Protein: ABC transporter ATP-binding protein
Organism: Xylanimonas protaetiae
Amino acid sequence: MTNDVLVVTGLSKRFGSGPGAVQANDAVDLTVHAGQVVCLLGHNGAGKSTLVNQVVGLTLPDAGTVVLDGVDAVADPARARALASVQAQANVPITGLTPRTAIALVGRIRGLRKADALRRADELLTALDLQPWADRSAEKVSGGVARLTAFAMAAVAPGRLVVLDEPTNDVDPVRRRLLWAEIRRIADASAGILLVTHNIHEAEHVVDDVVLLDAGRVVAHGTPAALVAAHPGDTLEDVYIRLVGHEPPPGQAATVPSSTARAAA
């Protein structure tokens, strides 16, 4: 077990060829440490989902490396996937199940004993205020409840890396706050979390580092406070808009201290 839960180095992926080719990722470097929440920010088409798919072994990179808790995810994607828990952007289909059953079932699949899986499912249902819908058929719950159930399925027996792709979509403000608190608790229990979200105002109070992607490249990375400090008078959202609207030249990514670097200084 290593403190570097995820190390991405020089990751590149191109789709197609000729004038219509798309460079989805371009020499991306990224590190997630144990106990750290790292947020990927970027507009639609910036390369976030492609990056996530390579991290969990669903897409093969053209160049670069992905090391997940010491495992080469490119050479051994199945083993790497066993070390990760993923909440995809699209909700998991749980037709015919209740939220409680779906959450506990994933816990069993990930190796928990039946009693432990049910106990952990109950903890998450309570923490996310889902008990009123815990035993209702999935076909009869709202999109927000389904989204929170999908998060709980990823969190019931979290791997060393937890990947959350837009976890707050469709979730009401009260339960979003509960969700952010649960994300922080999972990180504080030594998992590394890679978070994709557009909820900048909420995320900046939870995340440790931000990685800003534009056109497949990292254009800035650092703590939310450091990113804002580098642009006086701006909020994190202002920084995001400023940087994706005025892309720096290749090889000149705007870099500010990460939380790890600041702690070591």
